[in-house]
Amino acid sequence: MAGTQVRVLIVDDSPLIRAIIRRGLSQAARIRVVGEASDGLDALAKIKSLRPDVVTLDIEMPRLNGIGVLERVVGKAPVSFVMVSTLTQSGAQITFEALQKGAVDYITKPQAAGGATLPDFREQLVAKVLAAARVRGRRVAPTSGTRISRAPTLPPNQARGWVVGIGISCGGPQTLYEMLPAFPSDFVPIVITQHMPAMFTASFARHLDALCAMTVREAHSGDPLKQGTVLIAPGNAHLRLARRGVELAVKLDSGPLVSGHRPSVDVMFKSIARVCGSRAVGVIMTGMGRDGSEGVVELHQAGAYTIAQDEATSYVYGMPKAAAATGEVDHIVPLPQIPAAVAKLLSTSARRPVSAS
User: Fold this and answer.
1) Cβ(130)–Cβ(5) under 8 Å?
2) Options 53, 195, 207, 310, the catalytic residue
3) Taking CA 351 as the corner, what is the angle to CA 349 and CA 353, rounded to the nearest 5 degrees?
């Protein structure tokens, strides 16, 4: 939708939240708020009459909730939905149900009007609305890897000792819903840093686990890296790797924000570079900002392979673009080809570190 304004309908039963969303979106020249609705039935009528490109959709509303709106609209009208959810355990569960029913993305409500979270909320809101407009009308829901090139099962001698690290942010839930089911049950260990609130990562891992052949869990300190397992960094802790005898294990810490985030992709990638060296593949995917770009440099210079998602398949081409600009990315790959590309790299000889003679 380059060069055209994105038409947005705001749906929330709270006048305060509607006002915060309106003010946030008004900062973006490419966005035009065309209306507001206070409940689901009102939303259905205004989606039909106003024909927005994107709807910011509250979940809990009188008369008809957000899930009910999705069930009546997704796949039947050229509109995308960004859920606006509460920062609670129940909010997380319903949010991921909404993503499975076709919402493009979500954002959690700011904690208080005028609070420190408002600038970040507004920046993320604009990015997520613009990203949702790119996929307007396309049903975005979990797949079984049918659109994705599946990663083959690797012979044990090829898989042994490898680790895959994935860094991802805005648009990440739907991207991982599409990609992770393409990995077989005995694939090499995968660790993921996804920018997400602390109360959401455990629920997110459970939803992914139900879709994937690999076992997907929220990481805990001391967890060993095992073949066939995906570990996701908790929403309030950096994920690092450490040697524990002959095996690798996860270490979590709640240190300062790095690259503006905790968990940080840079922290995870740099840890993988130090601990795994050339026996690793780092994948940087859709997201705002630059988190991961410094880590990609360290990974590549340690001899690891590096992949960045391409612009066409990224919801937000920020993190992959910043990584590619370092010159330390081996391959720029569209989403459907990433699992097969990762598997292919694991079946080749490890790279030499940059400092090796």
Assistant:
1) no
2) 195
3) 150
* CATH architecture assignment, domain 6-134: 3-Layer(aba) Sandwich (3.40)
The catalytic position among 291, 293, 300, 331 is 291
Nearest to 341 by CA among 301, 263, 276, 285: 285
**pLDDT computed for residue 144 by the predictor:** 43
Please compute Rg for the chain using Cα positions: 20
Q: Which of 115-119, 157-161, 194-198, 348-352 has the lowest mean pLDDT?
A: 115-119
pLDDT in tens, 201-246: 999 999 999 999 999 999 999 999 999 999 999 999 999 999 988 8
Could you read off the pLDDT of 115-167 as tens digits, one per residue?
A: 336 888 898 899 999 989 987 755 444 444 447 888 888 777 777 889 999 99
Nearest CA-CA partner of 325 in 302, 297, 349: 297
Is 169 designated active site? yes
Read off φ and ψ for residue 170, nearest 5 degrees: -60, 125
Instruction: Report phi then psi at 21, rounded to 5.
Output: -65, -45
pTM for the model? 0.90
Q: Known catalytic residue: 349?
A: no
The H or E element spanning position 36 is strand 31-37
Are the CB atoms for 70 and 99 separated by under 8 Å?
no
Is residue 144 part of the annotated active site? The answer reads: no
Architecture of domain 156-346: 3-Layer(aba) Sandwich (3.40)
Domain regions of the chain by residue span: 6-134, 156-346
Residue with tokens 């503006």, as numbered in its chain: 260
The rounded distance, in Å, linking the Cα atoms of 251 and 233 is 10
Catalytic residue among 80, 85, 169, 264: 169
Strands 105-108 and 80-85, by their bridges, are parallel
